[in-house]
Amino acid sequence: MSDFPQSRMRRLRANPIMRDLVRETELSSNDLIYPLFVVSGNNKKLPIDSMPDCYQISIDHLENEINSISKIGIQAILLFGVPSTKDAIGSSAYTDDGVVQTAIKTIKNIMPDLLIITDVCLCQYTDHGHCGIVHSGIIDNDASLDAIKRIATSHANSGADMVAPSAMMDGQVQAIRSALDGSGFDHIPIMSYASKYASAFYGPFRDAAQSSPQFGDRKTYQMDPSNWRMALREIEMDINEGADIIIVKPALAYLDIITRARDKFPHPIAAYNVSGEYSMVKAAGSMNWLDEQNIIIEILRSIKRAGANCIITYHAKEIASHLNK
After folding, report:
1. Domains of the chain: which residue ranges?
2. Is residue 296 a contact partner of residue 318, using CB atoms and an 8 Å limit?
3. For 185, what's the count of Cα atoms within 13 Å in the CB-facing half-sphere?
């Protein structure tokens, strides 16, 4: 039975101030983490064709980029490296003078308080493009853990504030936690890609990171998009191994996973609004098929509403600028 006409829901929508008063989900620049691609070499600001307004930048361009990020209120970045050389074991991922290690040190000199989160994976650094060590055409889980530990420790040693393992190797969080603690980095948190699906939404990212697999696919280690119970198992295992924050990736097609995780676990949740989600909006916006800015805000609010504490998004710069005006 309706309460109308005594109850009229439109009373609370009558004007902007009223709508602000009763708004349940807020979005601010503090919620946003900006992914940044750093490439080897000098004087490079290379546009990523499949990701409009995103670039690969070299170390010498970091100062301008970091200053612009800070001015619009972004307080955290997720750092990806694109090396000049690759090999079968991804050895350039954990060298002291690697592209990410050098970028961390450079950024800390420019903006010490900027929170630097580093992606810990092998795919950008291996000549085969897979996230682990390959033996006889098979991704060797346990052999990969040693490399993953070395990457995380080298990032922490260079000054990273948080590490984010994304390889989806079983036991990677436990291995990293043990390695960090054993090296005096027990204060460094782990943001784990705990629920990372084998998604078709990653295509543009693989252009940006130059990380497409050279054979097969990643379905033997990334999750089947059909499964939600498995996601909760993965999240629980990573939490038990020492994850401080968990990531659900992608975001839009997996809002139900964010909500299920929010209902089950007290841990902070980050959602990754991935490259394909970004590029679809940019493409439609460029054709004037939709109101790009309002669509982006609606998407990001939906991710917050689903239960995410923070959002990794390529939209961070444009939306932070808008929100802070």
Report:
1. 26-323
2. yes
3. 23
> Is 99:226 a contact under the CB 8 Å cutoff?
no
Helix (H, G, I), strand (E, B) or coil at 162: strand
Q: What does each C-alpha distance from 23 to 16, 17, 28, 296 come to in angstroms?
A: 10, 10, 13, 18
Distance between CA atoms of 181 and 217, rounded to whole angstroms? 33
CA distance 226 to 161: 34
Q: How many Å apart are CA 55 and CA 140, to the nearest integer?
A: 32
Q: What is the DSSP string of 83-150?
A: -S--BTT-GGGG-TTSHHHHHHHHHHHH-TTSEEEEEE-STTTBTT--SSEEETTEEEHHHHHHHHHH
Q: Indicate the pTM of the whole model.
A: 0.95
Encoded amino acid at 111, one letter: M
CA Rg, the chain, in Å?
20
Residues composing the chain? 325
- Average of per-residue pLDDT values in the chain: 95
Domain 26-323 has CATH 3.20.20.70: yes
Check: CB of residue 177 under 8 Å from CB of residue 237: no
Alpha carbon distance 190, 239 (integer Å): 10
Q: Which tokens belong to 210?
A: 């130059």
Per-residue pLDDT tens over the stretch 118-165 = 999 999 999 998 999 999 999 999 999 999 999 999 999 999 999 999
First to last CA, the chain: 45
* Catalytic residue set: 196, 249
Nearest to 180 by CA among 261, 273, 250, 242: 242
Cα–Cα distance for residue pair 208/193, rounded to 1 Å: 19
> In angstroms, rounded to a whole number, what is the distance separating the alpha carbons of residues 151 and 120?
6
